[in-house]
Batch of 4 targets.
Target 1
Amino acid sequence: MTRMIAGLGNPGPEYEKTRHNAGFLVVDLLGENFRASYWKDEAGALTAVVRMGDEDIVLCKPQTFMNLSGKAIVRLLDRYDVAIEDLIVVHDEIDLGPETVRVKKDGGHGGHNGLRSLHDSLDSDAYQRVRMGVGRPPGRMEAADYVLQPLKGTSWDDFESMIPTGAQAVLHVLEHGIDSAMQEFNAKE
């Protein structure tokens, strides 16, 4: 059995320290934890295949920019013969408070362009999600400007502090299933 963890984000140094790259940061940490030794550029994404028990886990960071990330993910699902139900997508979420991590299965895209691209490409929402809370933009700031705003100082430190929790949530889904992960992470205050 093969499963996939897709972290949503944008490629390039100008996006590295933005809220929109929460998914990339979680996948990078998982790659370190699994000792991924080689990242391959394939199907519009950077991928690394790691082992967890008797399963292959495909770590994926689409390089197509957020709004087209679904196309790369779908190509990789086909290439690695991964069922939609065995896909875990990690993404930023403005509808959750900052530094909040929640787990979800199914559901709409909620206006998130990366999820919209995935929904359009899959014609399904039957995948699992780890949602990384970034909070709502202040005042009249546009959501896109907010999630793409580079973070510095304590703002970056606070944001980065939730990345290990996101990685733990992904591992919990892999080891114990989505329902157990929802009980564990969604009940936290």
Target 2
Amino acid sequence: MSEHDPVETVDATFEGVTVLVVEDEAKDAEVVLDRVNALGGQCLHTDTVHGAQRLLIEHEVDLIVLDRMLAGGERGLDLLEWFRDIETTAPQVLITSRLATSDDHILGLDLGADDYIDKPFDPRELVARMKALLRRADSIRSPMSVLIWGPLEVRTLNEVALWHGEKISLRPQSFAVLSMLTRLKGEYLSREALWREVWKKNKYLPPQDTVINTEISRLRSSLKVLPNGPRVVAEDLGLRLEINA
């Protein structure tokens, strides 16, 4: 914040609020971070869409300040499409961009953004727009239905798994096994627990090794075709997922 900028004071609108800043330009990111912190909010920052997805899984976010064009030609708008893919309501989203035509604004709003501010922006206008969006917000996103571990993404609501953004072809039971293993992130899963959760109709029967082994084999076959894909490891303590990428 420069010596000529107005000094911000804590604002009740920002109390208890978490703002995710997705911005690859250091100076622009600093402006947003400084304002939010001065106003009493909490800030998260990343410069990639994948980084934003990780933070959204790990934290409850009330507002996203999203740069439309990120480093390496990455599109910030891809984050809005991700919310659609996982069938989850996004937090309030304010797009920042140097693309200032009406068509650019309309595209961002059509994809689910709530407001748009052109770069370079006046910090006072930025604050005013953030406050307006926070007052309008009526819910907080709960993204626990999406599991992310490295390049593996498991969307439990619509039963889709992705590896480096590409869909993995899986049977429903293979998806259920992968989902459980992903949630544990390398920890062991007993065959008994797997049986109870995946084969719920038969959960009161002893685990059927032949059934379990067949499904594990199918899952391994689906993962084997992926470039440097995850591995299902069977050991005395149970099953676990291993990711080397």
Target 3
Amino acid sequence: MSLALNPLLREWSGRVVWLVGASSGIGRALAAALDRAGARVIVSARQQALLDDFLREHARAQAIALDVLDAPALQQAAQAVLREHGRIDLCVYCAGYYQPMRAQEFSRHEALRHLEINYVGALNLLDALLPQLLLQARQNSPAHLSLVSSVAGYRGLPKALGYGPSKAALTHLAEALYLDLSPEQIGVSVIQPGFVATPMTAGNDFHMPALLTPEQAAQSILAGWARGEFEIHFPKRFTRWLKLLRHLSYGLYFRAIKRATR
């Protein structure tokens, strides 16, 4: 009996894939891997220069510059993709923002910026995308929606006062979407990376265990889609430990985290 929670994504030739937040890090590496696999890749991000750089290396790809906080721009981008390709087979929300924050240096502005980019931007994308995904499902051309969250959203962690709650909200959103959309045969997955060497993590002043390259992260994501997973977490040697910690009582959990981060 198959344990897959989603339709298996294994063949990419000709599939229309839109990645929102793909100018660097995991998003860019994933876009490059999908382009090599034969997908028709559209990349979006705020910085046109970085998108142009991607297009120079991937001539078949397309780019649409936008800010995920600009809801009308996302609506216009979705319509542009549909005018060009007629459908969207996979959309990946990989826009993200991270700045370390502790309560001793709390910034309301920074906390809200995490929430806006990591969560509200995904809501803006859903507003632009869900009617089309539901229409495709009724026409027997179902799609897949994937949200890039983080293991930082599993439970509270030091220096994650802004980042962790926003990613926890994104994971919760993915779970609720799966329950609503899986009966429509629309795939939904949530991607939970551990530490990946990206511009976002470059400023960390602590040891990052089991650090991966963006290219390794991209391969883990492709493997998760191929297995039909809902939660794609990696690297397993690190994320399984964090998943185990989720089951501890608060007393045991707080002691374990304090000991590990001393």
Target 4
Amino acid sequence: MSEATLAIEQNDPVLETDFAREMVRQMRAIDTYGTYDDWSVEKILEPFVLTKEKKREIPVVGDPDEVTLSRVKAFYNAISAMIEKECGLMAVPMINLTHEGFGRAIITVGKLVVMDRTLRDVHRFGFPSLSKMKDEADKLLSVALEIIGKYPDVAGM
């Protein structure tokens, strides 16, 4: 994929946010062969942006591929890292998926479940735009922090 065909603009303000930086950090962490070392931030985050046309091209027959599964894990790992950064408590993501691409993502802090998301159609995991991805992450983060604030004793266990 060439830089000219990327759906993410180089000067997109979302790229300067803490969440985008954390997403890049998570994607580079799962890159065991160093493939992403020379890639731009836009190119690393590009697979998370799926337009309706791109989604239609992805078949939902068969198992989700490992690259897609790693993107799902990176997204929820980034949210967990942001929770840790905000409240200082360890957040642990747990993702359970069937071979058909259905399952659940849970983030716990102590004994407290701060996020519980049903995952469907993981083959087509992505967002219409980078800002939509950040909005979704911000929404999940704010709800998680609100739950931690409401039950700090359970979160601190």
